[in-house]
Design a protein that fits this description.
196 residues, mainly alpha, 0% strand, elongated
Length: 196
């Protein structure tokens, strides 16, 4: 009879995310993730097969959870633009310093060079764009944005701005906190389309 799992896959994948931010995918080891999760490396091999299998599971989870910060923000903020700002801030909240940003970009290298990871990255980017488009469309309906705005094009610009903000923030040692930088860049992008 198999012993019950005392640590869920979700908890392991959360530990993987923390370890990735600290070490990046190149320096990440199953031993490091196991220590972060309070498990043995053998348990990770049993559940995920290999480091690649663990990282693919992490990428799959990220794609499946792409809507979570947006869903939470919609519940917390009646204003669609406030919800958009909150969701993007939540997405950036795990990155605390330039080194963690660099480690996150290390995962992007996997996304761009490995077809298995690229599939998840593309799906995640598409899902995030859909969520941004939805909030911008709601903002038009709520009268926060002008009625003639092309929400699909603006959603792409928001996504590009958000990703660019993360990189430029990491390159500037004197930058304001990341949340403030995300807010300022988003507000600057949306200003010409605001109704007031």
């Amino acid at each position: 009879m198999a012993r019950p799992r005392t640590t869920s896959d979700e908890a392991i994948l959360q530990a993987t995310g923390r370890a990735l931010l600290r070490h990046g995918p190149g320096r990440l080891t199953l031993g490091g993730v196991a220590a972060e999760a309070g498990l043995s490396p053998a348990t990770l091999v049993q559940r995920f097969g290999s480091k690649r299998g663990l990282l693919l599971a992490f990428a799959r989870r990220a794609t499946q959870g792409a809507s979570h910060p947006f869903d939470h923000a919609r519940r917390e903020h009646p204003s669609p633009l406030a919800a958009l700002r909150a969701a993007l801030t939540a997405m950036a909240s795990s990155v605390r310093d330039p080194e963690e940003m660099a480690n996150s970009l290390g995962f992007l290298q996997l996304d761009l060079t490995d077809p298995g990871f690229r599939e998840h990255a593309a799906a995640h980017a598409h899902a995030v764009r859909e969520q941004i488009t939805d909030l911008l469309t709601r903002a038009v309906r709520a009268g926060e944005l002008t009625a003639d705005v092309d929400t699909a094009a603006l959603a792409r610009a928001v996504q590009v701005t958000y990703n660019g903000t993360l990189i430029l923030w990491a390159l500037d040692p004197g930058a304001a906190p990341l949340a403030d930088t995300v807010h300022a860049d988003l507000d600057g992008l949306l200003a010409p389309y605001r109704t007031h």
